Amino acid sequence: MHLEQGKSGLITLFLNYKFSKKTNMRAVLLFLFLNTILHFSTKAQSKLYDYLPLNENQDSIIFHYKQIKETNIAQMVKADIQYFIIKAEKETYGYTIFLDGHLVIEQKTIPGLSGSLGFKNIPDTHKIAELVIKKMKEGEMPPTISEHELIEMDITNRH
Prior knowledge:
By secondary structure, this protein is α+β, with helices and mostly antiparallel strands. The chain folds into 2 domains: 3-45; 81-152, no CATH class. It has 6 helices and 3 strands. The protein has helices spanning 3-16, 21-43, 48-51, 60-78, 122-137, 147-152; strands at residues 81-88, 92-99, 102-107. Strands 1-2-3 form a 3-stranded antiparallel beta sheet. Helix 1 (3-16) runs antiparallel to helix 2.
């Protein structure tokens, strides 16, 4: 299958698939990640060999990952990224992140932890939403939060 056909097929599949609320964020992030890879592949297809390392000892997977990350960073620098605090279950809070006016993340639970409850207070929600945006601007897609980061940031409402 040609890469352009693969990209069109992925977009069509994504647009026609009906997501539940639980899979919505995962699906959007997966779509963005796959779209970035396919975009990089199709734009650079004619120059792909220019990017391949000449040194056989260099790990080409790491090299290409760095290229994709640089592309993500360049795109995020130009993007308008905004977040909003939202209400979640049982008087907790979450956040949404918009990229150029399009919803890309809706997080109603504390990332990095199991469970279905959100943050107990708004200031902690702001801290994590801002960290996620920072990671997006650094090219990390999808952005992830670990339990260790929650502890470092003194997020006191871990369940």
